[in-house]
Amino acid sequence: MHRPITCTLFILSVLACLQGTAQPGPGEPAYEITLPDPAGQPVSLSSLKGKVVLVDFWASWCGPCRLSNRHLVRLYPKYHDKGFEILGVSLDESQRDWLKAVRKDKLTWLQVNDNGGWDAKTALRWKVYQIPTSYLLDREGRVVGIDLEGRDLENAIGRLLGP
Fold first, then answer.
1. pLDDT tens, residue by residue, 110-143
2. Residues contacting 102, CB < 8 A, separation 6+
3. pTM of the entire structure?
4. I need a surface site. Which of 56, 59, 118, 151 has the fewest CB within 10 A?
5. Sign of dihedral through CA atoms 113, 116, 122, 127?
């Protein structure tokens, strides 16, 4: 007789735990990120509040990431002065490889490194299971898009920045 209530409570508690560990979804606040930049100085995502931000998870060894970088290199200068920023979060375990890719791909936006590969704490917290993975954030730091690309990404940035 008590078994259905016990099972229901168990299931509800498991769901509550899972909800707390899910990746941030549309309309939800982004999780904080504080990681070192190429000079070793900490950069926090919260310091970018007030800007439209693309959080871009990538790595030097990821071919699709490097291809995506080409598109972002063209997009960034077009919107940066209007309040757009990119925070590149590298999962590279080798700082040398990471910095070499930043130079080679001519990445001029903010770059940080969480050098744990797939076990990087930031990737685990954000539930990043593939790269590239990106989150578009509004000026208040809420997620408004996940893995937007090409025209969809550019249109979303334009709408968020306004006229």
1. 999 999 999 999 999 999 999 999 999 999 999 9
2. 38, 88, 111
3. 0.85
4. 151
5. positive
